[in-house]
């Protein structure tokens, strides 16, 4: 059976330097499904912290992280899976208050349930970044099975707050625009089959961006065992 996707929640908080944790709306994760949380946080005035996620009786494990916009913003991707998760909100925390937070929470079904906390369902991940682009791309390695699915998470520094279009064959999951002195967009997308070119686009004005992409293993998908592979690609040149 093909990998399935269910949106759980998304949101953001901007220009609030007085909090170092935020709560999502209440969610009801399903048992033995891969839960993915994408977090974008920024702090130009202080310390850019690595976030953590807690809640719903699950253990949240970082898949990958990347900074962009001259280290003014950070993107972090988390995974979890459990046999009996509880309903409730998730808490995203940082050591110090950040200027903004944005998040996207989604669950994937018909995935490999081996390993711990969803480790068997994530075959590989890749990070990438680019400067002065309208077409935003992350490149994954060859897929382990034609049955596996593709997921992409983009962070975009965009003072024009343009709407983002998913790449060909991809479906948008969440899009969150933050306002204020630093204007960031969180964008997530997926497709139920393979695509090593994970991409999206903005219509008019070039932007700086970063992204994280993963291959999601279908329950019967044949992928070689071992450590999750990763790679990083930087496209273009800094300003």
Structure description:
By secondary structure, this protein is an all-beta fold. The chain has one domain. Helices cover 0% and strands 50% of the residues. It is built from no helices and 17 strands. The strands form four sheets. It has a six-stranded mixed sheet with strand order 13-14-11-16-9-17, with no helix packed on it. A hairpin with a 4-residue loop joins strand 5 (61-68) and strand 6 (73-80). It starts with a strand and ends with a strand.
Which SSEs are present, and which pair or pack?
Blueprint: E1 4-14, E2 21-23, E3 34-42, E4 52-54, E5 61-68, E6 73-80, E7 91-93, E8 100-109, E9 122-133, E10 135-139, E11 149-157, E12 165-166, E13 171-177, E14 184-191, E15 197-201, E16 207-216, E17 229-235
Parallel strand pairs: 9-17
Antiparallel strand pairs: 1-8, 2-7, 3-6, 3-8, 4-7, 5-6, 9-16, 10-15, 11-14, 11-16, 12-15, 13-14
Overall number of domains: 1
Low-pLDDT runs: 223-227
Mean pLDDT: 92
Quaternary organization = single chain
Q: What pattern of helices and strands is seen along the backbone? A: EEEEEEEEEEEEEEEEE
- Major sheet: 6 strands, mixed
Rg calc: 17 Å
- Count of DSSP-assigned helices: 0
What keyword list fits this structure?
239 residues, mainly beta, six-stranded mixed β-sheet, 50% strand
Give a quick precis of the structure:
With 239 residues, this protein is an all-beta fold.
